[in-house]
Amino acid sequence: MQFHSLCLAAFFVAVAPTGSVASDPVTTGEYVITQSWSQETAFQRPYYVHVPEHAGKNRLPVFIFLHGNGGHAREAIRGFSRHRKTIASQYITVFPQGYRESWNIVAERSKADDCEFIEAIVGKLAKADNVDPKNFTIMGSSNGSALVNQLMIESDLSHVRNYISAVSPLNVMQYDGKDFKAKGDDNNYTVAATPVRGKRLMNISGLKDDLVPYMGGPSRAIPGKDGKLTFVAAEESTFVLARHMGHEGKRITEPSLISGNLEVFSYLDGDVIHYKVQHEGHGAERGIPEQALLDFLKGNHADRKK
């Protein structure tokens, strides 16, 4: 998804000192996490934070957005300020930068420990005295969404309430039909993992997606360990996660709600929800109105037929 900005300059007013006091309020600016891995040593990885104006001393929820492959956090900032204005005015928004413009899932360019990177960001922000430490959301687009899925599978992030994956349901390395899988140091996904229960999950997928097929199967372009990466069908992926989170019934085969171009499949009173975007492809995130995101974030249920 391409983004455009109304207030990009506000994000680059300061670089936070690494020794800032943990309980200080987080402010708008550029921050870094230092990591070392096979490709880099003591590498400073940036993330950009925007705190709404007139926030005062209120503790605000945090919304972290992970760009897609080839994207950049600064572009994501531009788009959020224009297309998600209400969220940007009510949430502290955070935009981490993927190494080599990618996130380390299966066979991407980045070999960094991206789960550790996001966990470190969450841990730092949760200590700030203007942050609600129990109300974090992590949303990703495409490759960023794949990282959202991996965080949901193997991270014990008590601060995170909501995970939102846009145009990337589970791939078959993350879920093999029986078990969820931790990535492992070698990206071989051989060790079963048990995702933390009690999380709220949203998936958005486009019916006409020719990069991540809605009905599952190999991508035409995304690399796997041997050939192209294979995906779980979008509705099946949501059902598998809903079942893990406590759904005891069968998979929903008819939408809980139809609204224009959107078909909604809602489990657990809307705590696990799938948006099927009828006439969109890999840009299906554009088809979701901001109000639908806000309803999910605030726990409003999208489970009535129209």
Structure in a nutshell:
The protein is α/β, with parallel strands linked by helices. The chain has 6 helices and 14 strands. It has helices at residues 73-83, 85-90, 114-126, 143-154, 234-244, 290-297, and strands at 29-37, 40-50, 60-66, 92-96, 131-141, 160-166, 180-182, 191-193, 200-206, 217-223, 228-231, 257-259, 262-267, 272-277.
Describe the structure.
This protein is α/β, with parallel strands linked by helices. The chain has one domain: 3-Layer(aba) Sandwich (Rossmann fold), CATH 3.40.50.1820. Helices cover 20% and strands 29% of the residues. The strands form three sheets. A ten-stranded mixed sheet has the order 1-2-4-3-5-6-9-14-13-12, with helices on both faces. Strand 1 and strand 2 form a beta hairpin. The longest helix has 13 residues. It is globular. 42% of the residues are buried.
Attribute tags:
306 residues; alpha/beta; Rossmann fold; 10-stranded mixed sheet; two-stranded antiparallel ribbon; 6 helices; 14 strands
Number of helices: 6
Q: Which structural class fits the helix and strand makeup?
A: alpha/beta
Mean pLDDT, all residues: 91
Number of domains: 1
Amino- and carboxy-terminal Cα gap: 29 Å
Query: Proportion of β residues?
Result: 25-35%
Biggest sheet: strands side by side, in what order?
1-2-4-3-5-6-9-14-13-12
**CATH topology, which one?**
Rossmann fold
Following the backbone from N to C, one meets helices and strands in this order, namely: EEEHHEHEHEEEEEEHEEEH
Query: What is the CATH C level class, in words?
Result: Alpha Beta
Q: How much helical structure, as a percent, in the residues?
A: 10-25%
